[in-house]
Amino acid sequence: MTCLPLCINEWHMSTPHTPSVGQLKRALELTTQIQKLEAELNGILGGRAVKSVAAAAVSAAAPAKAAKAAKPSSRKGSGRISPEALERIAAAQRKRWAAVRAAKAASSNGNGSAKPAKAAKSAPKAGKRNLSPEARERIASAQRKRWAKARKAK
User: Fold this and answer.
1) Distance between CA 49 and CA 54 in Å, rounded?
2) Per-domain residue ranges for the chain?
3) What is the DSSP string of 56-104?
4) pTM, two decimal places
5) Phi (first) and psi of residue 144, to 5 degrees
């Protein structure tokens, strides 16, 4: 690993004394082990030069992370959104911004009082459900009975 002298320097700067001979020998052993492992890693990776072990680890882990991020989570309540849902959200936002830009262009050409146009709805949204007057009256009378009973109990 090429950062070993830097690591030793950092360690040396953080401690008031110099490293012992035993510590320096161990550091040298570790450096040679790391160089051998880097050479082996370069052989495995087809002769490509790897600057450091960390770079190799990051490059090896990147495809796994990308695959994991692309796969929707099956855990309940994990807070992750599927790629399809993200695309729907992005498309809706693009549509809203297009409407804002269109209104801005219209206002710059016209008198300046145009409001952003509402985007056309693609599918009818399930609206708020309303109670019939009869159902409301039944609920209200039942509630009045409960209040009367509670007042009587006092």
Assistant:
1) 13
2) 4-70, 81-120
3) HHHHHHHHHHHHHHHSPP-STT-----HHHHHHHHHHHHHHHHHHHHHH
4) 0.24
5) -60, -40
Q: Which of 5-19, 37-51, 139-153 has the highest mean pLDDT?
A: 139-153
Q: Identify which of 115, 99, 96, 95 has the alpha carbon closest to the alpha carbon of residue 107.
A: 115
Specify the amino acid at residue 137: E
For tokens 């052989």, the residue is 43
Phi and psi, residue 48, nearest 5°: -70, 140
pLDDT-above-90 percentage for the chain? 40
Q: Which residue has the higher pLDDT, 38 or 14?
A: 38
Q: What is the pLDDT of residue 1?
A: 45
- 90 contacts: CB under 8 Å, gap ≥ 6: none
99 within 8 A of 119, measured Cβ to Cβ: yes
